[in-house]
Amino acid sequence: MTTILIETHKVFEGEQRKYRHYSETLDCDMVFSLFLPKQMDNMLTDLVWWLSGLTCTDDNFSQKGAFQKYASHHQLAVVMPDTSPRGTNVADDENWDLGQGAGFYLNATQEPWAKNYRMYDYLTKELPELVYTLIPNFSGKESIMGHSMGGHGALVIGLKNPERYRSISAFAPILNPSQVPWGKKAFTAYLGSDEKAWAAWDATSLIAETAIAPSILISQGTADAFYEVQLNEEAFLQVADGKKVNYEKLVGYDHSYFTIASFIEEHLQFHKDYLK
Amino acid sequence: MTTILIETHKVFEGEQRKYRHYSETLDCDMVFSLFLPKQMDNMLTDLVWWLSGLTCTDDNFSQKGAFQKYASHHQLAVVMPDTSPRGTNVADDENWDLGQGAGFYLNATQEPWAKNYRMYDYLTKELPELVYTLIPNFSGKESIMGHSMGGHGALVIGLKNPERYRSISAFAPILNPSQVPWGKKAFTAYLGSDEKAWAAWDATSLIAETAIAPSILISQGTADAFYEVQLNEEAFLQVADGKKVNYEKLVGYDHSYFTIASFIEEHLQFHKDYLK
């Protein structure tokens, strides 16, 4: 059970690190990235989780997210897990929207996925215990955010654990996976064709049922090619009535990391407001 | 002679574009990226050239440079050319530090390189004429910057054309290629083994000989693994005496784009000071 630091770069006076470890939950070696801000005197460090989208690894946000300046400023550590279990012994699919790189942040129940595809348990039990030990002066306070499939993940994990995460934010999240092509395909494969099992992993079902939800910020680009078919917000906003949800449309912005980079300052300020 | 817009993304209210065109100078199809800031009332747009390092394309800086916020703020267009001619009909080498991705921003005289490897002419004659037409309200004012091999390129192009570029900046530039392994290998291949031909493409020789040099800012990370062997500054600073050169060491920073992202605000502010 060793955790190995395999890369580190100084950035905005903090450190962008990459670690490898063996995950018991996923039964494979995993890599994750961790940004640690420069330790400022007498300040505790809060933790923000970033969950990436389909096909991504821990690298996409660390390299293209342009978040380090603001995480340094707000004394935030940011952890970037991978998007699925990985390796030659891990089940996979030839398509990019299923299998490795497309874990959907759930616990699979169907073969051949059930053995390794337990990203929910990994992200809520095993990885936090490890990450907490890597943050000097950790405040114990956490928020969660993500993009696309990772926005779905952030909402599902945050809504299932409202006492743990102070706030949730998402760029272009899959808000209602049970009803859209990406989600139907993944849920059928990982959870089976009985749709009753899907509701536990669908942000729209979860926010309708929960009594308490963390504050939520969602940013959606209007020029996002996936917006209408995969990312529609209507059902979610209808049942989210009464919860603290700020849904903003970004006119002319698309599904890329250029959008994330443009608005990451706003998202980290949102989280800091709830973490402090 | 058509120029095709193949990609565009809104970012920080501006546009990150990618174009393809046929270059007569290089005798192959080329791709370049161009950031255009949001047009502000009554403001002219200045142009900054970014030249990337070995193995890079136009994508590295556009995706990892985190420059768009500051370029938007200062009303700067930024053009990102590729690092060499490309294509199956273009000479190449099996090593990453020669051939495609490693053009060294010069005009080659030796076979098999002389036909296509004319990056200096491409960047100072053909591409500017094209780029000027793509910038609304262009001021006619230009500066140039780059990283590593691209820092060498920015210094060489800037020092050969001091009337054209208002300022030059570089991250971790190859300051004296005639004396270091990367440069010796490339210059021998592209220019031949007679070292007299090398001086015209070496920033240290050029700054020693020029009467007038644009203002220069150079940032070098002290944790850069290439620093001692490839990027040493001593000879350059010795002969640069009397020119406006600000050479700064960045303690703990390495050769990666994390360093560039951390200090790009300072570099663009430096250029804006000379462009306005």
TrEMBL record, chains A, B:
It catalyses: S-formylglutathione + H2O = formate + glutathione + H(+). Its EC number is 3.1.2.12. GO terms for molecular function: carboxylic ester hydrolase activity; S-formylglutathione hydrolase activity. The active site is at S148 (charge relay system), D224 (charge relay system), H255 (charge relay system). GO terms for biological process: formaldehyde catabolic process. Pfam families: Esterase. InterPro entries: AB_hydrolase_fold, Esterase-like, S-formylglutathione_hydrol. One of its GO terms (cellular component) is cytosol. Keywords: Hydrolase, Serine esterase. Serine hydrolase involved in the detoxification of formaldehyde. Belongs to the esterase D family. This is S-formylglutathione hydrolase.
